[in-house]
Design goal:
GO molecular function, one term: nucleotide binding
CATH superfamily of the largest domain: Dihydrodipicolinate Reductase, domain 2
Pfam families: GFO_IDH_MocA (PF01408), GFO_IDH_MocA_C3 (PF22725)
Number of strands: 14
Largest sheet: 9 strands, mixed
Strand order of the largest sheet: 13-12-11-10-6-9-8-7-14
Distance between the termini: 36 Å
CATH architecture of the largest domain: 2-Layer Sandwich
Radius of gyration: 20 Å
Structural class: alpha/beta
Oligomer: single chain
Shape: globular
Strand content: 15-25%
Length: about 350
């Protein structure tokens, strides 16, 4: 991180998704001061704050009224975010928020517009962009040395159990989550893909719920992709692949093929050379959705803090997140209607 005074941060929400954020904030204490954490369940809030030595906030309003709070980290389920974000934007607080932006693209667009109108920075957590391997590939793509993109292949072969996951109230519903495997799990890999390939122009997809789950939304999606730059691609995403495996993204360029598998990158050059970059880590693809290191969250939170203090946009913004929302909409619509859909 660049050298600044400490960023004052309020945290809203302290459920399952909060653990890697809390670990990251604990490691960033020299740069970020957690001014307070707020959650409706007071007993759970106090347990969480004791675990990480963070101060509990009296209310959301108290956080927004604190002149030392520069930004909010919003970790609530997507169905609870819009009023929180709108109140924070009115109070002039910058916002870093868990994915997705909201349950529908229309609601996501309203959140992005509210932040832009208020002149506050909106960052969206897509920590897969901050893996060392992802960053290395981003630099290679930006340099142009890999050549022209011809094809992309994305596989997200994850597993989530019925008992203990989808049996929990709200899981896999449109009312709470906004959808199934695409918006809740594969959205990370889809966002990373788009950051490397550019936009998708059209899709042809199949979306379904397998017999392994009883849920309102999809747990399996497969589809063909047509990119705006002329490249083609394919994807498969599921939470019905027991016991779950690492996601894989392969990009075929005119000079090399690049494969990201979990946190590892392999570059296979057409001249026979091979390069590898990576780290041994889990990705949360199995029954425990939080089985991954907090380093990626730490890097993204640090980027957001620097962006706020430097007056620039963070790597992942509300505006960039709208691209993945629109891609997910097109995939679901194509699967439902059985036809090619433009994005």
């Amino acid at each position: 991180m660049a050298k600044h005074k400490k960023l004052g941060l309020g945290v809203v929400g302290a459920g399952m998704a909060a653990k890697p954020h809390a670990q990251a904030l604990d490691a960033l204490r020299d740069h970020i001061e957690v001014r307070g954490v707020w959650r409706r369940d007071r007993a759970a809030l106090e347990d969480f704050c004791r675990s990480y030595d963070f101060p509990p906030a009296k209310s959301l309003e108290a956080l927004l009224a604190d002149s030392e709070v520069d930004a909010l980290l919003v970790l609530t389920p997507p169905n609870a975010r819009q009023p929180i974000v709108e109140a924070a934007a009115r109070a002039g607080k910058h916002i870093l928020m868990e994915k997705p932006v909201e349950r529908t693209t229309e609601a996501a667009e309203a959140i992005v517009a509210a932040c832009e109108d208020a002149g506050v920075t909106l960052g969206i957590i897509f920590q897969h962009r901050f893996r060392a391997a992802s960053r290395a590939l981003t630099e290679k793509v930006a340099s142009g040395e890999l050549g022209t993109l011809a094809a992309a292949h994305l596989v997200v072969p994850w597993w989530r159990p019925q008992q203990g996951y989808y049996d929990k109230a709200g899981r896999g519903t449109f009312a709470q989550d906004g959808g199934g495997v695409l918006i809740t799990q594969a959205i990370h890999s889809l966002d990373l893909m788009l950051s490397l390939t550019g936009p998708v122009r059209a899709v042809t997809a199949l979306a379904a719920t397998t017999g392994l789950h009883q849920m309102e939304t999809e747990d399996f999606v497969a589809g063909g992709l047509e990119f705006a730059n002329g490249a083609v691609g394919a994807l498969m995403a599921t939470t019905a692949n027991y016991p779950g495996g690492a996601e894989s993204l392969t990009l075929n360029f005119s000079r090399a093929s690049a494969t990201l598998t979990g946190g590892n990158l392999t570059l296979s050059w057409f001249d026979g050379g091979v390069e590898t970059v990576g780290e041994a880590s889990n990705s949360g693809g199995g029954a425990d959705p939080m089985a991954f290191p907090f380093d990626w969250h730490m890097a993204q939170i640090a980027d957001f803090a620097d962006a706020v203090q430097d007056g620039r946009q963070p790597v992942s913004t509300g505006r960039t997140a709208l691209a993945v929302h629109r891609l997910i909409d097109a995939l679901i619509r194509s699967g439902r209607e059985g036809r090619r859909v433009t994005v």
